[in-house]
Amino acid sequence: MAVRLRLTRLGRKKKPFFRIVAVDSRRRRDGAYLEKLGHYNPLTNPPEIVINEERALDWLLKGAQPTDTVKSILSKKGIMLKIDLIRKGASQEKIDEEMAKLEVIRQEQADKAHKAEAEVKTKAADDEKTGESTETEDSDSKPEDAGTEKDE
Fold first, then answer.
1. Which of 14, 34, 72, 81 is the most exposed place for a label (fewest CB within 10 A)?
2. Helices and strands (H and E) in the chain: how many
3. Is 65:5 a contact under the CB 8 Å cutoff?
4. CATH architecture of structural domain 3-89
């Protein structure tokens, strides 16, 4: 039996919510599954990802193949890095060290993103303040252009 780690869709129309499950590859998308490993909610900002890391590692070590989307989700959580290190025979200390490095890198990326977002917001606020005065001047000077049309 070929086991896949994949998403099964829940939620209503236009409101997707996914379970991350271990399932026989011959089953349909929303069919019966072997085990629920977590869930993924893409509607929240940032997307909510909850995974039972121990069980996911167990299934991956047993040979379960993740789909592309699940592989991406597992990579975001650092599980794919961990499984790669385990397969290479790294010690637990080395694995912990690599996971700590990954956490530091992700924290730095999050800080950069927050700074960039704050800069965009302040720039937009400044543009809005300066844009309000020019909009009123522009709208006062161009009323005759807005209403004229060519008569044929």
1. 14
2. 5, 5
3. yes
4. 2-Layer Sandwich (3.30)
